[in-house]
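Possible regression after last week's pipeline update?

I re-ran a chain I had predicted before the update to compare outputs. Posting the input and the new output here so someone can diff against the archived version. Not blocking, just want to make sure nothing changed silently.
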Amino acid sequence: MLTLDRNSQCRLAALGLATEGAVRMAVLLDLPDLLSDHDLHPDAVIRAMGCDPALFQDADNTIAFSAVGRLLEHAAVATGCRCPGIELGRSKGLNVIGAVGRAARLAPNIGSALRVVTLNLHLHDRGAIPYLWTSGDQALFGYALYCSDIVGAGHIYDGALAISNNIIRELAGPDWCATEIRLFREAPEDITPYRAHFRTQLRFAAPQAAIVFPKADLSRPCVDADADRFVLALRDLESLDAAFGGGLTHKVRRLLMRLMVAGAFLSDLAPDRAAIARLMGLHPRSLNRRLRAEGSTFAGRLAESRYAIARELLRDTRLPIDAIAALLGYAETASFGHAFRRWSSSTATAWRSRFGQ
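New output (post-update):
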């Protein structure tokens, strides 16, 4: 079992862990090959985008999401490949998310495995939130960026969905197939690469980036399930998170964003201090005290999370303003409007007109 010293000065990158706003390079290692296949000089293209080609020598190096988006957007233009995210993601699965993938692979069933991913992906990726929820007889496994104003976000979502689809297929077996793939982006002229990879119904210009499949599949046993090794793998993740998870402030922020993105606030869970404290197994006063010790407040983290998710939804979806307000836990659209103007010095409508895709 992995043992970590809380006072260790080792860098996150040395352990293959992402820093805030960044992701491990494992997802991009094939980009030089994609560029070479189109008769381009990889190092020259990568340097032209302000990135160091040496980053591509180690899967555990990290790169900012903003740089990922620029690289993919430039690759799409330079190569004529309109879906570089699909091209790079189609060969990747559990292996690309490091320790999180190793633990998920050993889970007893698909539901347990995906919960491992949603609760621990921040060790690999700290620019987006994965989420899993069910409605009726369907399950939805989605991915939402919370880093704002990223050029090439559509390509990042394509890659995330390609990898997520592979992850579930690895867990369930090669015969598994999703019911529907929901993509943020508009349908390109040629959707052949999407059909070839996902092999199911595609829904472009969807309100979220997600994979839809039968809820019953959550109980399906994982191909490589191993109860004893799964327990050890979870302990490793707990050790990593305790040492490098970012403290209570970051955990509260991740939980708030995951719940908002998943739409939990539309049901019976209000975005208040008591609910979050309960989910974290703390008394509200203990939550307040521990946040203050880190120089933070619950109100500050709630506002920060709402603003991040609001920008993502305004930029990448066609959800009406009132629906976004409700999703973020506002009883009145006007209250959301006042808050957004305070955060951005702009109305939500004007912000969407300027930055929306």
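Follow-up from reviewer: compared with the archived run. The radius of gyration is 20 Å. Marking as no regression found.
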